[in-house]
């Protein structure tokens, strides 16, 4: 091993990183936030599952195949420990966030040495994309998903360097665990199978080595089989992701800015009027190919637009800051590659495929999270190279020496690297919390929803069913939820009676932008149609949220 890969106290750097990551996330978890988006889905599913009600939402009437059970299991266990679903989600963010930092340190150290590993781990511990944004993206699945997937990457890289049976087994196990949290982990599997296959073809004995990527896929699907069988029982189909067809059905509206189309495709009623489309068994028949073939030119335009969005969004301050591109360039192009370095860079590049794959659906900030750990590895390595250059240059200028730039001087180099890392850490501790502003779209959640939850809690009792488009309102009010359909008023009220909904919450933005049929409920709330009783309304300055009782 080279000098950089062996610190004097080998366990001290990762211990420091884990403590920093843990403390920072513990502090950030106390920040004010709203539980919104998909996060309540996972929390309610875990609660229902563990209390014996089945892996289902009561209103859907069937086993839920849209949401893989990994995160519901994690939060249900942590709820048992903490006694609170919200806090369980936050402890998952803390613990798996710290694990991700440790894994990034280990992977970067294997490739570039321990100083680059420490820099990559420090950036992962403190940067907004990994340290703060998961709290505000609306799923909270990112920390366990990335931690488990990159643990699989770490073992895959061990096998990549030297094919070994146990490394392949552990890589498959952790990639399967990651799949149970987020099914797009299947792309990580494909990427690792590809690079391992290329490596096997280039490394004698080729035939024997090709057995290792095959083994990776075999173990992965063996671990997935119980879940895939349950999906088969619920839908009648063998598939690795029931979301693919549904994503194609809804993503076009999002990608082209036609939000009403997205709303109807997702929250419109199924053919029988018993469930919204997202929770209906009819979505099991959604077929990606049919959506593409129906309008291939239109789909090509969507992919092109998504690629442009990816390039634009990836360098936002909340993901990968634009100034980091300088260090990324230093990491990749400062020194000539040898064969080993070339294989390592190919491996890291392959890990980017999961994030890039979203150009085929829809691109938004949180979908790009799988790109970030690898970019941070390059960022950290480039940062260390800058520190080494600065240390050597300072030595030569101050001492008046003209030794070649490759000469080693531990004291000067080490001081420069650590000085830069301390400055970077201090900068990120100040900069990261400021990225909360704009972290969520006001069309998804806004302060009025928290006010509505507080107002609703004065009327509703635990166990009461609240109909709302915005799931954070019933969750924060401590009630049960049923989604508001994108349908005419008569169909909505019929659906509400079918689902035994007790209250209905209508948002002004919902009515003005997506569902104009609800505008009378906002503009004249005190004269509702038969079947509704006006209770109260709240407003945060951007439009009222009105609460009705269903009679």
Descriptive overview:
With 551 residues, the chain is mainly alpha-helical. The chain has three domains: 3-240 and 308-378, no CATH class; 243-294, no CATH class; 447-550, D-Maltodextrin-Binding Protein, domain 2 (3-Layer(aba) Sandwich). The chain has helices spanning 12-28, 39-50, 70-82, 85-112, 114-126, 128-131, 142-161, 165-181, 185-202, 206-235, 243-255, 259-267, 288-294, 296-314, 324-333, 339-350, 353-356, 372-399, 410-431, 447-457, 472-477, 489-498, 508-514, 519-523, and strands at residues 465-468, 480-483, 503-507, 532-539, 544-550. It has a five-stranded mixed β-sheet with strand order 2-1-3-5-4. A hairpin with a 4-residue loop joins strand 4 (532-539) and strand 5. Helix 7 runs parallel beside helix 9 (185-202). The longest helix has 30 residues, at 206-235. It is globular and about 90 Å long.
How many strand elements?
5
Number of helices: 24
Overall shape? globular
For the biggest β-sheet, the strand order reads 2-1-3-5-4
- The quaternary state of the protein chains shown equals single chain
Question: What percentage of the residues does DSSP assign to strands (E)?
Answer: 5-15%
Radius of gyration: 26 Å
Number of domains: 3
| SSE order, one letter for each helix or strand | HHHHHHHHHHHHHHHHHHHHEHEHEHHEE
Stretches where pLDDT is under 50 for at least 5 consecutive residues are none
Average pLDDT confidence is 92
């Amino acid at each position: 091993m080279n000098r950089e890969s062996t610190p004097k106290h080998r366990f001290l750097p990762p211990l420091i990183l884990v403590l920093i990551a843990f403390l920072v996330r513990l502090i950030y978890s106390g920040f004010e936030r709203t539980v919104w988006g998909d996060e309540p889905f996972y929390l309610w599913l875990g609660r229902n599952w563990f209390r014996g009600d089945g892996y289902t939402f009561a209103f859907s009437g069937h086993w839920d195949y849209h949401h893989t059970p990994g995160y519901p299991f994690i939060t249900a266990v942590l709820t048992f420990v903490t006694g609170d679903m919200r806090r369980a989600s936050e402890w998952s963010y803390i613990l798996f966030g710290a694990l991700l930092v440790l894994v990034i340190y280990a992977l970067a150290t294997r490739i570039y040495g321990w100083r680059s590993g420490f820099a990559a781990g420090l950036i992962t511990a403190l940067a907004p994309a990994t340290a703060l944004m998961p709290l505000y993206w609306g799923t909270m699945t990112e920390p366990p998903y990335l931690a488990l997937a990159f643990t699989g990457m770490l073992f895959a890289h061990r096998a990549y360097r030297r094919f070994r049976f146990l490394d392949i087994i552990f890589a498959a196990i952790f990639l399967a665990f990651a799949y149970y949290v987020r099914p797009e982990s299947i792309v990580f599997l494909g990427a690792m199978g590809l690079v391992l296959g290329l490596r096997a073809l280039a490394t004698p004995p080729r035939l024997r080595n090709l057995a290792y990527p095959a083994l990776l896929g075999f173990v992965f699907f063996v671990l997935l089989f119980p879940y895939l069988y349950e999906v088969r029982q619920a839908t009648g189909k063998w598939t690795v992701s029931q979301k693919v067809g549904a994503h194609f059905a809804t993503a076009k509206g999002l990608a082209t800015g036609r939000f009403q189309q997205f709303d109807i495709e997702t929250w419109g009623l199924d053919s029988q009027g018993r469930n919204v489309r997202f929770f209906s068994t009819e979505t099991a028949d959604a077929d990606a190919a049919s959506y593409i073939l129906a309008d291939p030119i239109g789909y090509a335009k969507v992919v092109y637009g998504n690629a442009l969005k990816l390039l634009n969004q990836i360098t936002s301050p909340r993901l990968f800051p634009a100034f980091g591109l300088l260090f990324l360039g230093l990491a990749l192009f400062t020194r000539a590659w040898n064969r080993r370095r070339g294989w390592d860079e190919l491996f890291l590049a392959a890990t980017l495929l999961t994030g890039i794959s979203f150009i085929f659906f829809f691109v938004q900030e949180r979908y790009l999270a799988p790109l970030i750990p690898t970019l941070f590895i390059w960022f950290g390595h480039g940062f260390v190279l800058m520190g080494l250059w600065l240390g050597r240059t300072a030595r030569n200028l101050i001492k008046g020496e003209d030794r070649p730039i490759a000469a080693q001087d531990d004291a000067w180099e080490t001081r420069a690297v650590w000085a830069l890392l301390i400055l970077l850490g201090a900068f990120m501790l100040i900069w990261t919390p400021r990225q909360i502003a704009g972290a969520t779209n006001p069309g998804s959640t806004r302060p009025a929803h928290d006010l509505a939850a507080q107002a609703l809690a004065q009327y509703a009792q635990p166990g009461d069913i609240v109909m709302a488009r915005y799931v954070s309102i019933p969750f924060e009010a401590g009630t049960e939820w049923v989604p508001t359909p994108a349908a005419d008023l008569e169909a909505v009220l019929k659906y509400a009676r079918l689902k035994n909904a007790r209250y209905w919450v209508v948002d002004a933005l919902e009515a003005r932008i997506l569902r104009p049929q609800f505008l009378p409920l906002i503009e004249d709330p005190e004269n509702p149609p038969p079947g509704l009783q006006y209770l109260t309304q709240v407003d945060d300055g951007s439009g009222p949220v009105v609460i009705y009782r269903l009679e």
